[in-house]
């Protein structure tokens, strides 16, 4: 009878240890789940910041391209006007020389 009581006490103690282990393990899993959810939320925020920074930089590059294209057109138009003015001078000089001959 004493052996049966001892075996029963040992079984109850083992069961209590198993239950305590399961509860501890579940608590650790819940804590880990919460940490992982927090990490996922932080990662999503970082992704959004990176994507916004990319969009902002690409927008700035597009604006700079527009300014450079406009400046290029100004330079081309100015150079063309100067070339035309010089060609008119050459034509005047040729006309002057031809008139003198």
Description of the molecule:
The chain has 101 residues and is mainly alpha-helical. Helices cover 98% and strands 0% of the residues. It contains 1 helix and no strands.
- Tell me the series of helices and strands, N- to C-terminal: H
Beginning-to-end CA distance, first to last residue:
146 Å
SSE-based structural type = mainly alpha
Strand % is: under 5%
Fold blueprint:
Blueprint: H1 2-100
Tag the structure with descriptive keywords.
98% helix; mainly alpha; 101 residues; 1 helix; single chain
Task: Describe the structure concisely for a colleague.
This protein has one helix spanning 2-100. By secondary structure, it is mainly α. The chain is rod-shaped.
């Amino acid at each position: 009878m004493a052996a049966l009581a001892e075996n029963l006490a040992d079984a109850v103690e083992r069961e209590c240890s198993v239950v305590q282990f399961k509860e501890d393990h579940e608590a650790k899993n819940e804590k880990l789940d919460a940490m992982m959810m927090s990490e996922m939320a932080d990662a999503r925020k970082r992704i959004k910041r990176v994507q916004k920074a990319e969009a902002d930089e690409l927008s700035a590059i597009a604006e700079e391209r527009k300014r450079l294209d406009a400046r290029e057109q100004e330079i081309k138009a100015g150079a063309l006007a100067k070339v035309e003015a010089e060609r008119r001078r050459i034509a005047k000089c040729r006309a002057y020389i031809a008139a003198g001959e």
